[in-house]
Write a structure and sequence with these properties.
By secondary structure, the chain is of the alpha+beta class. The chain has three domains: 31-51 and 60-278, Thrombin, subunit H (Beta Barrel); 281-365, Pdz3 Domain; 370-460, Roll (Pdz3 Domain). It has helices at 2-26, 63-69, 87-91, 122-125, 262-274, 307-311, 330-338, 383-389, 403-407, 427-440, and strands at residues 32-36, 42-44, 73-85, 98-111, 117-120, 130-134, 140-142, 144-149, 154-158, 181-186, 194-205, 216-219, 231-234, 239-247, 257-261, 281-282, 285-287, 297-302, 318-322, 325-326, 345-352, 355-362, 364-365, 368-371, 376-380, 395-400, 415-419, 422-423, 446-450, 456-460. Strands 1, 3, 4, 5, 6, 7, 8 and 9 form an eight-stranded mixed β-sheet that branches. Strands 24, 25, 26, 27, 28, 29 and 30 form a seven-stranded antiparallel β-sheet that branches. The chain starts with a helix and ends with a strand. 37% of the residues are buried.
Length: 461
């Protein structure tokens, strides 16, 4: 028996040394290996069956809309450099076994101004160390990242082309009608300047598997990997959405695609340009979601000192319209508010005990954010607080229900300044990161905080 084990052991060592010798003397080291990743579209679960299209009612052609838009949709190349570890190289004395690998992803983008501003999806450029734009005339330009909104999956880029560029004008996505013909323009499977046609199948669509965007435009225009960030346009060539997700069991188009409405996209872009982050507007109410049978959104509570209270909204009112736009479900209301800024005035129509009433409400700014998964409520720092505490960024904790943090006496007054070495500038940003990591990567979560006494403290999860 010992003899057999000895033979097996010698054979194993021989194989290991042979592999190591190959790695050391034959195979050449690769400092950077480029790997092209298939263009990915977000896929979500849905039970919607593709409709049979009535081609007899289709317009005679879509050439005018295609001509207006095809040159304003670009190819987006995202290059990310990641470190990889090879234990054999370290074992046989070839450095520390670490090397860098380039990963390349692709998608689409939409030129929205003659001076080179481009909108795309956040997931198309997320983690990029370099972004390259290829125009429809095959000219390439390096792009600068202006800002992102991961919550609504929108990113804004800028290129300097030294010439006026063709661009697509924004349409009013609220005016898009179910059954209206639309075009999806993008670069599926790296095929430049591809146009597909379909109809608007639904509006205000909320999707299982996407907890952020809750007001998609649904269409049956064919959208495939590589279309992410491309344009959804009406037959006049106006931008009414940014193609973002598909429902699929295979990764390819099988019936329906989903776009972030243009009104939401435009508001996000304006906020990124003016403020550097997204300003979230709220009415000042809580929602009663106990009944799914009513048409509209039932008010469960009205915030103290809110403009909603001053305007006369009451618990039990059912919101049926905002600015004459019909509200059938929460996603309709969320879509209207996401497209508005704090300080804007809206007309809210409610059903109160069978009577229709309209009240004018000034929208306020959401100033606190709750990470349900991590158990903390966060608020933006004021400029005065930054000055007093001699810090330039962060989000302060105003309530803490996290048992682990409570154990270390962390609570109200602490300021989160970094998460996994990423600087935190807003409470919304911190909330989104905490929620994503607490669900998926909790062991890799390192939070840097400043205590009320000014001490820098770090906690790992």
């Amino acid at each position: 028996m010992k003899k057999v084990l000895g033979i097996v052991g010698v054979a194993f060592l021989g194989g290991a040394f042979a592999l190591g010798g190959y790695k050391l003397f034959v195979e050449q080291p690769q400092v950077i290996v480029e790997k092209t990743i298939e263009p990915q579209l977000q896929t979500v679960k849905a039970n919607y069956m593709p409709a049979v299209m009535n081609t007899a009612s289709a317009p005679s052609n879509f050439t005018e809309a295609a001509e207006k838009t095809v040159n304003a949709v670009v190819h987006v190349k995202n290059t990310a450099v990641k470190e990889v570890y090879n234990p054999f190289e370290e074992f046989f004395g070839r450095g520390n076994g670490r090397s860098q690998r380039e990963q390349v992803g692709t998608g689409s983008g939409v030129i929205i101004s003659a001076d080179g501003y481009i909108v795309t999806n956040n997931h198309v450029i997320e983690g990029a160390s370099e972004i390259e734009i290829t125009l429809n005339n095959s000219k390439k330009h390096k792009a600068n990242l202006i800002g992102t909104d991961p919550k609504n999956d929108i990113a804004l880029l800028k290129i300097d082309a030294e010439m006026d560029l063709p661009f697509i004008v924004f349409g009013n996505s609220d005016n898009a009608k179910i059954g209206e013909w639309v075009l999806a323009v993008g670069n599926p499977y790296n095929l430049n300047s591809t146009v597909t046609a379909g109809i608007v199948s639904a509006k205000g669509r909320d999707l299982e598997g996407n907890s952020n965007i809750e007001s998609f435009i649904q269409t049956d225009a064919a959208v495939n990997p590589g279309n992410s960030g491309g344009a959804l346009v009406n037959t006049r060539g106006e931008l009414i959405g940014i193609n973002t997700a598909i429902t699929s069991r295979t990764g390819s188009f099988i019936g329906y695609s989903f776009a972030v409405p243009s009104n939401i996209t435009k508001k996000i872009i304006d906020d990124l340009l003016e403020y550097g982050n997204v300003q979230e507007a709220i009415i000042g109410i809580g929602i009663d979601s106990s009944s799914n049978e009513i048409e509209g959104v039932k008010i469960g509570s009205v915030d103290e000192n809110s403009d909603a209270l001053k305007a006369g909204l009451k618990k039990g009112d059912i919101i049926t319209k905002v600015n004459n736009v019909k509200i059938s479900k929460f996603s309709d209301l969320k879509g209207q508010l996401t497209a508005k800024r704090p300080g804007e005035v809206v007309d809210v129509t409610v059903n109160r005990n069978g009577s229709e009433l309209t009240r004018t409400v000034k929208l306020s700014k959401r100033d606190s954010f709750i990470s349900q998964n991590f158990g903390v409520e966060l608020k933006d720092l004021t400029e005065e607080e930054k000055s007093e505490r001699d810090i330039s960024h962060g989000a302060k904790i105003i309530k803490n229900a996290n048992p682990a943090l409570k154990q270390f006496k962390v609570g109200e007054g602490y300021v989160i300044t970094k998460i996994n070495n990423k600087e935190i500038h807003t409470a919304s940003e911190a909330k989104d990161i905490l929620d994503s990591y607490s669900l998926k990567n909790r062991r890799r979560l390192i939070i840097e905080m400043v205590s009320p006494t000014g001490q820098v403290e770090r906690y790992g999860f």
